[in-house]
Specification:
- There is one protein chain.
- Strands 7, 8, 9, 10, 13, 14, 15, 16 and 17 form a 9-stranded mixed beta sheet that branches. Strands 3-2-5-6 form a 4-stranded antiparallel beta sheet, with no helix packed on it.
- It folds into 3 domains: 46-99, Roll (Structural Genomics Hypothetical 15.5 Kd Protein In mrcA-pckA Intergenic Region, Chain A), CATH 3.10.290; 108-167 and 267-277, Pseudouridine synthase I, catalytic domain, N-terminal subdomain (Alpha-Beta Plaits, 2-Layer Sandwich), CATH 3.30.70.580; 176-252, Pseudouridine synthase (2-Layer Sandwich), CATH 3.30.2350.10.
- The chain is elongated and about 70 Å long.
- It is an alpha+beta fold.
- The chain has helices at 3-7, 49-55, 61-69, 161-168, 188-196, 232-239, 270-277, and strands at 46-48, 73-75, 78-79, 86-88, 93-95, 98-99, 107-112, 142-143, 152-158, 176-182, 198-200, 203-205, 207-212, 220-225, 244-252, 255-256, 265-267.
- Keywords: Isomerase, RNA-binding.
Length: 280
């Protein structure tokens, strides 16, 4: 058999055929057709209506579809029932007559370490708590309240202005527990005064509870308070002649430091957000 005869009937391989490329075939031996239709560019200033509603915090996206179909959502004064409808960020969207904000509400809890400032003003050269949660969100999250640079503990961040306003001045107060280390031992007489109420700036400060820390020097106390007055714990002890050496906020609302090491953060759970929204 000649060389030509021996190669007869064989399919050339890629190596033998030089620039030969094997064709790809779909089922039925028809060539695969490539999709040559260019994808339509997305408008960065538009968003699906159900996502817009869900981001505003009214409900989930699935429930938003139900409300849209029921005609409860209007865009620029016109009821929209079309699924998949897109709106521009400049449009006026209302749910049952209430104006909505499409920015997704986010809530982050930080266990603040020492030597980080929480003030919003520009503190050049100082480490700010916002740097510790920079990877948590693309939105600008602000602390609900403040902890002094030298103090540590729980700090809540959010872009939910309504919640921030509520938590800063709740009618019934917001539960907070602090672990304090004083520069001198707390006298039992002063402990009793705090329990009964101490006048600070012509207003009586009521504490829910205060006690010495078990198996620790008398300089260490735990205090539970519901007041939202600025720096009230420090001012309370200063009124009695004590200076706080260390302050650590271990409970904020219903939140604790459990499984949250110093300098770390976590997102609030859906139930935790609901609990805070119930505060009046």
């Amino acid at each position: 058999m000649s060389r030509d005869d021996s190669s007869r009937g064989k399919k050339p391989s890629g190596r033998q055929g030089g620039n030969f490329k094997k064709k790809s075939y779909a089922r039925g031996n028809s060539p695969i057709k490539k999709n040559t239709t260019a994808s339509k560019p997305q408008d960065p200033n538009s968003i699906r209506l159900n996502k817009y509603v869900a981001n505003s915090g009214v409900c989930s996206r699935r429930d938003a579809d139900i409300y849209i179909a029921a005609g409860s959502v209007t865009v620029n004064g016109k009821p929209i029932t079309e699924m998949g409808y897109k709106v521009k960020l400049s449009d006026e969207v209302k749910f049952d007559g209430q104006l909505l904000n499409p920015v997704k509400r986010e809530y982050v809890l930080l266990n603040k370490p020492k030597d980080f400032v929480t003030t919003i003003r520009d503190d050049r050269g100082k480490r700010h708590v916002s740097g510790l949660i920079s990877s948590a969100s693309k939105s600008k999250l602000l602390p609900v309240d403040k902890l002094e640079k030298e103090h540590t503990g729980l700090l809540l961040f959010t872009n939910d202005g309504n919640m921030t306003k509520t938590l800063k001045s709740p009618i019934n107060g917001l539960r907070k527990i602090y672990h304090l280390v004083l520069e001198q031992e707390l006298r039992s007489a002063d402990l009793k005064k705090i329990q009964e109420g101490v006048v600070v700036d012509e207003k009586v400060v009521r504490v829910q509870d205060i006690s010495f820390i078990a198996d620790a020097p008398k300089r260490e106390v735990g205090i539970e308070i519901y007041s939202s007055r600025n720096k009230i714990v420090e001012r309370l002890f200063e009124t009695l002649g004590y200076k706080i050496q260390k302050l650590d906020r271990v409970v904020y609302g219903g939140l604790t430091k459990k499984d949250l090491p110093r300098g770390h953060w976590r997102y609030l759970t859906d139930q935790e957000v609901i609990n805070f929204k119930m505060i009046k």
